[in-house]
Amino acid sequence: MGTWGVKLFEDDIACDVRDDYRAGIAAGEDEQDLTRRLLKKWRSTILDLEEGPVFWLALAATQWELGRLEGDVRDRALEIIESGAELQRWREEPDYQHQRQLVLEKLALQLRSPPPKPKRLRRPTPAALPMQIGDVWSYRLQGRTLIKLQAVHVHGTSATFRVPQWHGLAAPSLAVIRGLLKQRPSIWRLHYLHQVYEKNAKKMPLDRLRMLGRIKPQPSANEFASFNDWAGFERLMLEVFGLTRVAPAKRLSHDLGLMGYHVAVWPRRPEETRAAAARLFASYASRAWRRDPDRPKFAVTPALQRFVKEAKAAYPYDVQAPSLKWLGDFAAKEGCVIMGIQPGAEKSMVPFLRSLAKQHGLTFYDPQKGKLD
What we know:
Blueprint (H helix, E strand, L loop, with lengths): L11 H15 L4 H11 L1 H5 L4 H14 L5 H13 L10 H19 L22 E6 L5 E10 L2 E5 L4 E2 L5 H9 L10 E5 L11 E6 L9 E5 L1 H11 L7 H9 L4 E7 L6 H12 L16 H13 L22 E5 L4 H14 L2 E5 L4 E2 L1
Parallel strand pairs: 5-7
Antiparallel strand pairs: 1-2, 1-6, 2-3, 2-4, 3-5, 8-9, 8-10, 10-11
Helix pairs in contact: 1-2, 1-4, 4-5, 5-6
């Protein structure tokens, strides 16, 4: 999920929660049943220390707007605002944190005021997408930037696209696009398919879609990287192509398919640079790069073996039980050790692992911060 501003609904999670609640009201769902359903659907997000507060704030604001604010939801949102918990994810950007605080203070005043009368929402009228399998489309994102979409499956208002690794201001020829579709993307998320759906015909960006021609789709394993409405798909593409600000961990997720916090250790090489370290990390960390011919080979050194042994001694990993520290197991056998760390645990673990690598004369790389030691 992405955040592109300090306003409440300049966040993917907030927008999706609002859309879910409005869709339920439009469908005639009971208000309390709808809230319970959303609490169940968004359970993993609610339990997240950074994303959970966004859910409650978005739900409270949407319920107030529609005249259906529930007391428990209001109290939870006000508790979050008063505690300052939601502001912690903006701590590294003080200017944005202050702006966000003003937004939350305004929301608190709104939630303490009487809500408007309950509003009725019309059920959206479905419409069919004017697409066929193999159609290649030019899609204009925010700021006039174009990307290319090839439809590989179309059903009513839903379409599945392959997105080649290209963006620009002028559409290339169909021959160039054919070549792009055959190329292997370097961005992990573009290796897979993207399903886009929209039940509300008014939200379909048909005015920003232009058909360029038809190309026979390549065989696909039908593995999906995203399921979104058009607004969510656009936000995702802005992130994937680097056209909007995203957190470093999300950048790694888009580029390499990684979740959580990751660091790497390998034997020292002469004249190591951050750019070279980033390429090396990508070649080892991403499934999409596993067969990269430029992937360097490392001998398994005694220093690397000692590092792994001492790291696991300090923070044990049990294959039979979930770890509160590690995302998965790791070993010295590949020569470059990639370690996935549970969110929140990196604050104590990364300094220790960096010091341990230095002690054993190894290179330590933190891709989230682009830091090389």
